[in-house]
Design a protein that fits this description.
Helix content: 10-25%
CATH superfamily of the largest domain: Dinitrogenase iron-molybdenum cofactor biosynthesis domain
Order of helices and strands: EEEEHEHEHEEHEHEEEEEE
Radius of gyration: 19 Å
Number of domains: 3
Distance between the termini: 42 Å
Low-confidence stretches: 102-137
Mean pLDDT: 79
Oligomer: single chain
CATH architecture of the largest domain: 2-Layer Sandwich
Length: about 280
């Protein structure tokens, strides 16, 4: 018997792990869904959700966006993670059971985070009252906000002005621990010394964002070696399994009768990004 949990809202995969109010839990036996139920997050914050899932006997979590801290917590509890999924929750579970979890092509949209987003768990470098010592975080980031929980609104655009993401459009600030490695380096560094109420415009090179595209991350797989390959199409995002059994997202970039070509680079790899960041709260 396996138990699979999905971040859930109105039949869909809820995209922000740390803010989900419900999980849909599926009991699976011999590759088939036996029953399902919806459970609440019991008001737990992002830092406690991994423990909640463990208490419920969850073996696998399927979600949209999730931060690095929660990923580590899930790993500590022995819970397998399938992140970056979207769309109908029931269909996602069925796809997972077929070994071909297919996304609609929409990755987690909080591009401030180190992909994925949503969860904002992290650690403070301060004392038991949560006061930060103002030291350095990961990637050598320093500043008075390092180790503190920050809430920011932001708008992300490409150099041509096209918007790719906006917390303003979602109506809710993004919450994270500054310097804890949840965010891309340039975003974290920008917030590290901001004042509450300050608005800052930053331009990030790929090295400060998602890095350069790696040609070695583009690879071909023979159709004969991949069950279900006949159903994928160019432009689609699908999940493959690594050698240790962990799913990872790839994009189908080419396909012919014999092979399918996948690109495992992040969709933002190699891109310069612009952010307008408003620091709403620090605690």
């Amino acid at each position: 018997m396996k138990r699979i949990a999905v971040t859930y809202e109105n039949g869909e995969i809820f995209q922000h792990f740390g803010h989900t109010e419900q999980f849909k839990v599926y009991e699976v036996e011999d590759g088939n869904i036996i029953k399902s139920e919806i459970i609440g997050s019991d008001g737990n914050g992002h830092g406690a959700l991994a423990g909640l899932l463990d208490d419920k006997g969850i073996d696998v979590l399927i979600c949209g966006g999730i931060g690095g801290g929660a990923q580590a917590a899930l790993q500590d509890h022995g819970i397998e993670l399938c992140a970056g999924a979207s769309g109908d929750a029931d269909e996602a579970v069925k796809a997972y059971l077929r070994g071909e979890l297919v996304d609609t092509g929409a990755n987690c949209s909080h591009h401030g985070e180190g992909h994925s987003c949503g969860d904002h768990e992290g650690h403070s470098c301060g004392d038991n009252e949560g006061h930060c010592c103002g030291g350095s975080g990961r990637n050598g980031i320093t500043g008075k906000n390092v180790g503190k929980t920050c809430r920011t609104h932001y708008r992300g655009t490409f150099n041509d002005g096209t918007q790719f993401d906006s917390s303003y459009d979602r109506g809710e600030p993004l919450e994270f621990v500054c310097g804890a490695g949840m965010m891309i380096k340039g975003f974290d560094a920008a917030v590290a010394n901001m004042e509450v109420g300050e608005i800052l415009d930053v331009h990030l090179m790929p090295s400060e964002a998602y890095g350069e595209a790696d040609p070695s991350a583009i690879f071909k797989v023979p159709v004969a070696m991949m069950p279900g390959a006949e159903n994928v199409s160019v432009g689609q995002q699908v999940y493959l399994q690594s050698r240790n059994g962990q799913p990872f997202p790839v994009k189908v970039v080419a396909k012919d009768e014999e092979t399918v070509t996948f690109d495992a680079n992040h969709e933002m790899a190699g891109k310069e990004l612009n952010f307008r960041i408003e620091l709403v709260e620090v605690r």
